[in-house]
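User: Can you predict the 3D structure for this chain?
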Amino acid sequence: MSLQIRDLYAGYGRLEVLHGVSVAVEPGAIAAVVGANGAGKTTLLRAVSGLLRAGAGTIRLGDRDVTSLGAESIAAAGLAHVPENRLVFPSLTVGDNLTLGAWTRRRDRTAMAQRRTQVVEYFPRLAERLGQPAGTLSGEQQMLAVGRGLMARPSVLILDEPSLGLAPRVIREIFATLARLRSDEGLAILLVEQNVRAAFKIADHAYVMDRGSVLMEGEPTALLDDERVQQAYLGGGYVRVSEEPANERPEAADAAKPESLPGPAR
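Assistant: Here is the predicted structure, written as structure tokens:
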């Protein structure tokens, strides 16, 4: 199922943040949305998932117009939103957090159990921690947040800054899983990131946002060569995701300090 966003306007009260944003992602593809702090990336995802009401424009999941639906209805229609800062339930176990992710499909417990098995295959570290309180996890909290979103068997997955605050090795693992989900499950994935190089490494198409509008779009490799993108986003403020396998040079990977563009975008 595709995600089509056309001429979207949204904001908070009288403050308009998005000014006619158009973004699309097809099944089995990853679209990356990048931009500096304040570009409107988080607002875009909140509007798409129904947490924020659109002022104008359309949001479609496949053939269905979901622009006026609330968050629960949009989730039931096949969209999962993995928000910024994980937002796991810290006092609940990893297993219980995953179960809550399947709330829209809670009536079929057999299917829920089967899906949990599939999800922990994507993130084997979670299999070892199903009975552990989620608040005691470190980098695995982001894996749990993604896994919780997958429990509802979405057709469209949107993620807000999944690399934020993580070590390079964990970033590689999560982004490799997103690429696998694209091919294995045919998901349409909309990825908001300030780690431009990491996002562009797995994206099929990319959008650059600036002050609530799409400044440019195109193939990630072409945008990386664009002087405006290089000056604005690649001046050293990113985590370099090595081509080396995750098990090579672990000391260097763990010692690297993840950097990002300043602050989360709103």
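The longest helix spans residues 168-185. Strands lie at 3-12, 15-25, 29-35, 56-61, 64-65, 79-82, 156-160, 188-193, 205-210, 213-218.
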